[in-house]
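Saturday, quiet lab. Running sequence design on the structure tokens for the scaffold JK sent over.
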């Protein structure tokens, strides 16, 4: 009878493993990234799940036949590690043997082993499973991992509870036409535009919650900044004084995330040549102050993409900040759950955070009073009967609360200075891409 759990787990090779193995033999698995034949020997460049390592094949020192090897093959190798300052990470492996575990049936359609992938975005999307083997491409998603890990670590440190809310819902959090409809056992249902209703509900019993999950928007955009499915980093917190508490929490979270990436993802930062922002305090302007800065008439109700770029240039020039908050948006352009400003009921206690020319966050204070929420629904011509379950949280009591949602792909895009949001999505979903 087989006993499961008695063996040591297989694990990925690390740089620490190589350091500890210097002068001795090591065995691990990798993909053959590139073969460079030289006079009397060959460099076999190996691709692990995170690193590109250099190994050397010499016929009289290796018991395996290099002629059977090709780029893209997956192998189990054994060799001796030595320090080599000219090699990646300062290590080189002298091969003693290798076993081919799997070999590709065809050559790559893209230049995976070249310094640059050198193809159009559409070709990249068409051969996505191959393009992501390129070190530069996959490094993007290690940084994405770092953002998510840093976000989660910070939220837990601030006593937030991680939740997982449904993505098939009975009503859209924002309504309108940009919502995917589906049939659900004979009933109408939708894909969630946001976890808004459910995270507000959870504040009633957890006080502070966060979620990392997909968000769906049925917008027929074909721009460099929109996706129809993206990952939202959401949090909601109770017992706030005003929306400034939410903005302060986001500022502290972003500081932590940047520090976390700097400490844990130096490898990827170097591959990508990324420049992390310095976050001290983030400047904030009201919406109408922003229009004044832009030299615009006060007759518009939202910011357009060029406005966002110019405001970030202003923040950089005036405050040395890559970020700027814009607050107190006109209420007509904000959702029905946004609290009206006490100073001016035509404005909402709502904000956007702009980063390097792009909005990455929308947040604010929510309405917690039942009568106030009912009155606002009527002003928006929304039938309260359609939101019965949502209104129950107000009916049975809610603390003053607020929160926000961050688009992960937008944050990655701007952090790494990518030109198109599809480059920051593993398998983008837009009006043209449903596969792979």
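Result came back. Writing it out in full:
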């Amino acid at each position: 009878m087989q006993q499961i759990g008695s063996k040591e787990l297989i694990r990925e090779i690390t740089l620490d493993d190589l350091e500890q193995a210097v002068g001795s033999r090591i065995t691990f698995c990798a993909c053959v990234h590139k073969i460079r034949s030289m006079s009397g020997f060959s460099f076999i460049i190996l691709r692990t799940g995170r690193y590109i390592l250099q190994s050397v094949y010499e016929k009289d020192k290796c018991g395996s036949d290099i002629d059977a090897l090709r780029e893209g093959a997956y192998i189990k190798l054994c060799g001796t590690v030595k320090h080599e300052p000219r090699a990646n990470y300062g290590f080189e492996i002298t091969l003693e043997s290798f076993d081919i575990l799997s070999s590709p049936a065809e050559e790559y359609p893209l230049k995976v082993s070249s310094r640059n992938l050198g193809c159009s975005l559409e070709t990249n999307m068409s051969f996505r499973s191959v393009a992501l083997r390129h070190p530069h491409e996959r490094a993007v998603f290690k940084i994405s991992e770092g953002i998510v890990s840093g976000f989660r670590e910070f939220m837990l440190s601030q006593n937030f509870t991680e939740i997982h809310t449904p993505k098939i819902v009975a009503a859209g959090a924002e309504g309108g036409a940009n919502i995917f409809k589906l049939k659900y056992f004979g009933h109408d249902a939708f894909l969630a535009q946001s976890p808004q209703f459910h995270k507000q509900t959870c504040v009633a019993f957890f006080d502070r919650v966060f979620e990392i999950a997909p968000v769906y928007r049925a917008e027929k955009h074909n721009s460099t900044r929109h996706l129809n499915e993206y990952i939202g980093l959401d949090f909601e917190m109770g017992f706030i004084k005003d929306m400034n508490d939410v903005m302060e929490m986001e500022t502290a979270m972003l500081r932590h995330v940047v520090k976390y990436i700097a400490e844990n993802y130096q490898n990827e930062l170097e591959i990508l040549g990324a420049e992390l922002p310095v976050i001290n305090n983030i400047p904030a302007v009201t919406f109408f102050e922003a229009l004044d800065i832009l030299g615009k008439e006060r007759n518009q109700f939202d910011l357009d993409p060029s406005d966002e770029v110019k405001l970030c240039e202003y923040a950089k020039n005036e405050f040395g900040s890559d970020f700027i908050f814009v607050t107190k948006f006109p209420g007509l352009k904000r959702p029905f759950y946004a609290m009206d400003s006490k100073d001016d009921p035509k404005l909402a206690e709502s904000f956007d955070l702009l980063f390097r020319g792009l909005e990455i966050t929308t947040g604010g204070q929510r309405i917690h009073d039942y009568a106030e929420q009912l009155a606002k629904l009527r002003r928006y011509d929304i039938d309260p009967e359609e939101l019965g379950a949502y209104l129950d949280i107000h009916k049975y009591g809610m603390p003053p609360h607020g929160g926000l949602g961050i688009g992960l792909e937008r944050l990655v895009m701007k952090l790494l200075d990518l030109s198109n949001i599809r480059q920051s999505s593993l398998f983008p979903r837009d009006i043209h891409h449903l596969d792979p």
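Notes for JK: The two ends are 41 Å apart (CA to CA). The domain at 15-102 is CATH 2.40.50.140 (OB fold (Dihydrolipoamide Acetyltransferase, E2P)). Ask whether to fix the surface positions before the next round.
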